[in-house]
Amino acid sequence: MIHARGLAATFTTGRGKQTREVRAVDGVDLDIAEGEVVGFLGPNGAGKTTTLRMLTTLLRPTAGTATVNGYDVLTESVQVRRSIGYVSQAGSTFSQALAGDEVSDHGQLYGMSRRDAIARGKELFEHLQLDGLWDRMPKNMSGGQKRRLDIVMGLVHDPSLVFLDEPTTGLDPQARANLWEHIARLRTDRGATVFLTTHYLDEADALSDRILIIDNGRIVAADTPENLKSQVSGDLIRLEFDDHADVPAVASILESVGTDVEVDEATVSARVRGSARVVPGLLRDLESRGAVLAGIEIVKPTLDDVFLTLTGRSLRDDTPTETEKEAV
Ligand SMILES: Nc1ncnc2c1ncn2[C@@H]1O[C@H](COP(=O)(O)OP(=O)(O)OP(=O)(O)O)[C@@H](O)[C@H]1O
């Protein structure tokens, strides 16, 4: 479905002596199979949208090659565009027209009959909770409704490959959950391939068969969410005590069963592999030493921990990436 080799995009910013090159995407290889749902994760400015824009032929790569649905992004851009659905971050509706007309025009532009475009459009309106808004102008819709209309536009022609750039940004939790369900159904009911970028780690985790993590324009990890999380060395165990005096002894016990032991006042934390096996013995040990627990928390590794392990930064970290530093 998608194959890319050495895909790169370099932008030149500034003027005169201030001119700088920004390597937004720096040699990306991709192989995405039919029917896969792939989550494309990365911090702000990592190169997600730029990659999507190259794959959807909106931006010409500076280097590298890519085929999408079997068509070359450089020489067969019309065929690529006709064979995909794309929901951009910016949206794609024209505020002055009626929403339903936009949707049916869009379907017809992709070769559907007016009747089929209206039927599929109305079905999507119902699934994405836009009932009753067919005859409303997008300018009179809420932000969340407009976002869902963008998604209808990207899906109305039933593409076999859909690119979604942060589809749930701006949606309330209930609309987000509804869209998750819809994305999952695109694959199960229609066999569609979905390539989505998101800032929500739980979203990528819940929806994706495979996660690609991009940082500074390069793919730093590509695997199933489970395999990625199993790379992180164990669950995070956090033990809190009433008495600070218990802490040093507990820290030394944790040193023997885990890694990354940290002490913060009356709390000790550590990463422990196989925590379900280790914790009962740990609690017995603490009890025999007379240490009184005030609280215990066990947190499974998240995709953020994966990113932290790989790069030393959090995905939610707002510090500029290398690419952004170069762009300053
Ligand atoms: N047209 C452009 N001209 C100059 N620099 C650009 C241009 N488009 C993107 N960049 C830079 O390229 C880098 C990657 O941007 P991109 O939008 O692909 O990141 P992203 O991962 O999609 O970020 P976000 O999560 O914030 O949407 C950033 O440093 C950005 O500032």
TrEMBL record:
It is found in: Cell membrane. SUPFAM superfamilies: P-loop containing nucleoside triphosphate hydrolases (SSF52540). One of its GO terms (cellular component) is plasma membrane. PROSITE patterns: ABC_TRANSPORTER_1, ABC_TRANSPORTER_2. Residues 2-241 form the ABC transporter domain. It is a peripheral membrane protein. GO terms for molecular function: ATP binding; ATP hydrolysis activity. Gene3D superfamilies: P-loop containing nucleotide triphosphate hydrolases. Belongs to the ABC transporter superfamily. Drug exporter-1 (DrugE1) (TC 3.A.1.105) family. This is ABC-2 type transport system ATP-binding protein.
